[in-house]
Description:
Layout: H1 24-38, H2 44-49, E1 53-60, E2 64-65, H3 69-78, E3 82-85, E4 92-93, E5 97-105, H4 106-139, E6 145-147, H5 157-167, E7 180-182, H6 184-190, H7 193-204, E8 210-214, H8 217-226, E9 230-234, H9 238-251, E10 256-260, E11 278-280, E12 293-297
Parallel strand pairs: 6-11, 7-8, 8-9, 9-10, 10-11
Antiparallel strand pairs: 1-5, 1-12, 2-4, 3-5
Amino acid sequence: MTTKSDNDILKGIHNPDISHVLHPLTIRHLAREWLKEDAPNFDYGGFVVGEKEETAVLLLKSEGVLAGKPFFDAIFKELDCTVTWNIPEGTFLTPVNAVATVSGKVRQILLGERVALNIITRASGIASAAKRIRTTVEDLGWHGEVAGTRKTTPGFRMVEKYSLLVGGVSTHRYDLSSMIMLKDNHIWTAGSITQAVKDARVVGGFSLKIEVECRSLEDAREAASAGSDVIMLDNFTPQALVDAAAKLKKEYPKLIIEASGGITEETIARYCDVNVDVISLSRLTQGYDVVDFSLKIRKDGIDPRNTPVNL
Length: 311
């Protein structure tokens, strides 16, 4: 059973393809590195199966949001296989569902099998968590942005950040070059919040926002006065956050206020205040659950959905 993709109910005339944010050469490079890591030398199993043309079915075996298609495609493109999708990316699915087929030489299909499954299970897990949280805050009538953080898996950031977008939340800053975030170590080294913001503006100019991590209302006021664009209220209790955000918005109406630190899917509702613009959660890219998929070589007369074996 499938439901309409989020992309199909967007306001406007056209449905944007989120995959267009990805650089094709970067995806190709990642796919090649992943394949080389998994089979750095001989392909012993490939010798056993040979190069007979086969078709495999990608089966979803636990509910979740489908994400990671561009990376899945790139892996099998490198192996001269063809992927045909039955379901749009961003769709919430329930098991057992035949999501796609992969056609090509069986040796090549099996070379990409585990690598591609590793990607799509994790990507879909992140998108599913993001979708659940976005739905929670929308049901509360909160109009701010939920965001991930830079707490990503080394070497896997692009997949994780992309999956956040598929799930309908913000990536936050993509990397250290995307926005200037001044944390406690920056401030202690610079000598003060004011000096840190002043120095950051010299190199960031007009094109980069500056965000300052603040542990108190006094710190936040200093950062705002110094010219910070975004204030992160870090590890505030929900009530302290609401109080501080109200005071800051009254004094600095254009200030962007972010809540962060220890916020989870279970507690996020307590931070959805009218004066809070962004809520960031590291759990979206740390410790997420995966969505279960398998890839089965199709046999004549046998529905692969009736043989859900873990590979």
